[in-house]
Amino acid sequence: MSNNRKPGETGRIPSAGKVRFGLDRVDPSLLEIDQHGLQYESSRLTARYHRWVLRRCVALADLAPGMSVLDYGCGRGLLRRWLPAGVRYSGYDIVPHLTEIEEPRSGRWDCIFAIQVMMYIDEGGLREWVEAFRQRAPQLVVALPSRNFVKDRILDPLLGLSAERQRLVRSLPGEIYRQLATGFTRTDFINAAWMGEISRWRAADRGA
Question: How does pLDDT run across 48-106, given as a tens digit for each residue?
């Protein structure tokens, strides 16, 4: 969820005068922050790491030509670059000029990606998120920043992320996983060298 408007860009989706799904569950100032410039593209090292995360997320998903994906919190839509040929992409973001679709709860997809966004959502928003999407896709791929001594005390201060993390982060990984487990079952987990966590989830039995 990144607000990095290009010069002259007027937006892909006009405002409909209603609260966008997820907007009321994050800190309002999140819309004003250029997340790509702050952490995903702040240096060659962080840009390389972010692209590695995107590639690992795609590799973890079970995708084939003809399938469709939702990129929730799509930002600039960089995930699209790494998808297999023939996979249909839809990007949703709470920032109007970044989104491609107005209402993410009205479609169905073969996979939903939530990459580096769920930590900004509060507890009630996480419950709403799971309820909205547990019957919209058979699988999720979620990427989160790690919370540990190395990340919190060394890497984040070095990258200048500590203040933004304290101000904007509303949910820790444990709470996010607990909420996801009410509608999905985790099948894969990757710990990315103290920096991040990538997990794959299968939707619970829809007949239950």
Answer: 888 999 999 999 998 999 999 999 999 999 999 999 999 999 999 998 888 999 999 99
3-state secondary structure of 88: strand
CB 60 within 8 A of CB 111: no
**CA-closest candidate to residue 196, choices 146, 127, 153, 141:** 146
Distance, in Å, from the CA atom of 36 to the CA atom of 3, rounded to the nearest integer, reads 8
Q: Which residues contact 12 (CB under 8 A, 6 or more apart)?
A: 96, 97, 98, 99, 100
User: What is the helix, strand, coil percentage profile of the chain, to 5?
Assistant: 40, 20, 40
Cα 67 to Cα 107: distance, rounded to the nearest angstrom:
13
Domains and CATH numbers, the chain: 47-203 (3.40.50.150)
The pTM for the full model equals 0.83
pLDDT at 14: 40
